[in-house]
Amino acid sequence: MTAAEAIEALLVGGLTKSELAARSGISRSLLxxxxxxxxxxxxxxxxxxxxxxxxxxxxxxxxxVARSVPDWARPNEAMRATPLTVQQxxxxxERVVDMAMALPRRQRQSSGYPPFKTIRAGGAR
Length: 125
Description:
- This protein is mainly alpha-helical and 125 residues long.
- The chain contains 5 helices and no strands.
- It has a domain of 49 residues.
- The chain is elongated, with a radius of gyration of 33 Å.
């Protein structure tokens, strides 16, 4: 059960969000944040909300729910890289270099730094 679901369960008895906020001393905007899931309340705040309507908070550990991975994200045989021979690797490298050479080049602009000065052995002038 999420925190938002636990708070919604407190509101089932016909209590409005404003009434729950007033009874618990937690602001209505903070309560709205909890219900939308944007903000997670502390355990103490959940206990405070429950106590304001005569409920006690019991905590227990439960097994974690495994998040299912979509089929497209699961590794499969098609994702495995096929081993390449030296000749095939050279051909791939040639294609990459050819494509890089075909890219348009920008004109080199001068840097905003002053040109380097040479320092002579006898000291700078």
